[in-house]
Write a structure and sequence with these properties.
InterPro entries: ClpP/crotonase-like_dom_sf, Enoyl-CoA_hyd/isom_CS, Enoyl-CoA_hydra/iso. Belongs to the enoyl-CoA hydratase/isomerase family. This is Enoyl-CoA hydratase. GO terms for molecular function: lyase activity. Pfam families: ECH_1 (PF00378). By secondary structure, the chain is of the alpha/beta class. It folds into two domains: 216 residues, 2-enoyl-CoA Hydratase, Chain A, domain 1; 40 residues. It is 45% helix and 14% strand. The strands form two sheets. It has a six-stranded mixed sheet, with helices on both faces. It has a two-stranded parallel ribbon with strand order 5-7. β3, α3 and β4 form a beta-alpha-beta unit. α1 runs antiparallel to α2, α5 crosses α6 and α9 runs antiparallel to α10. The chain is globular. The mean pLDDT is 93.
Length: 263
């Protein structure tokens, strides 16, 4: 990261640690339950742009007793030099659309098949916190986790990319119920309905994420990336014939690359 980007990380309340094939992103505003701001999303986007090709797995975690309580509530109250989220409603539609697209960029790179992403989630994962966890390929949760899509209850909608992975994980009907009731989804239910792979005691969460991250980098990089693309295509509704064609094309690319000695 450049010095400017490091300053952006500090403003966004994030810490980044890169150790070989693994990067760990920590939401580091525990006093505010890791509440998010536009600076958080800009810093996340900068991390996505800066990670080298050698990074195979990314773990996203929250410091303290919560993963993220979602949007910093101060953004609902305009102040001098801080127009707040409501200002989007007074912008020309194209400008507002572009602004929100910029926010989404902080989350969308986490689904790039170039690497596997894991959310290690404890405590509250509300609104934007829930959507950040959903942006990752996999979720491991602590027994005290509380997922909640709070936006509709506030008169707005989830707009950080959370709707697609939520439906993909739990199905349309369950996603409707979770979003429109605003209820909390705990650890046992999260595992049962497919939101999370497993739940562990809070003290074991980091170790569980470490174990999973280590296991996921066993396959060669390009084979893993091609497999992720295939699986994502099926999850997104690719029909069986198209999935078979995608498998053939991916395998040809892999075999040609191996035959050429390029990995």
């Amino acid at each position: 990261m450049t010095l400017a980007e490091s300053d952006l990380l500090q403003r966004g309340g994030l810490a980044l640690d890169v150790d070989g094939a693994r990067a760990t992103i920590t939401l580091s505003r525990p006093d505010s339950l890791n509440a998010q701001t536009p600076d958080t999303w800009a810093a996340l986007a900068a991390i996505g742009e800066s990670l080298g090709d050698d990074v195979r797995v990314v773990v996203v975690r929250g410091a303290g007793r919560a993963f993220s309580a979602g949007l910093d509530r101060s953004l609902f109250t305009p102040a001098p030099g801080r127009p707040g989220i409501a200002a989007l409603g007074t912008m020309p539609p194209d400008e507002a659309d572009l602004t929100i697209a910029g926010y989404q960029a902080g989350f969308s790179w986490l689904r790039d098949p170039a690497r596997v992403t894991i959310a290690a989630v404890q405590g509250h994962a509300i609104g934007g916190g829930f959507q950040l966890a959903l942006a990752c390929d996999l979720r491991v949760v602590a027994d005290d986790v509380q997922f909640c899509m709070a936006e509709p209850a506030l008169g707005i909608v989830p707009d950080l990319g959370g709707t697609h992975p939520l439906v993909r994980a739990v199905g349309y009907a369950r996603a409707v119920e979770i979003c429109l009731t605003g209820r909390r989804v705990g650890a046992e239910e999260s595992v049962r309905i497919g939101l999370a792979l497993r739940s562990v005691p809070p003290a074991e969460l980091d170790a569980a994420a470490d174990e999973l991250a280590t296991a996921l980098v066993g396959a060669p990089r390009e084979a893993a990336a091609e497999t992720l693309r295939l699986l994502a295509g099926v999850a997104d509704g690719l029909d069986p014939a198209a999935a078979l064609a995608a498998e053939r094309a991916a395998q040809v690319r892999r075999l040609r690359s191996l035959a050429a000695g390029t990995g």
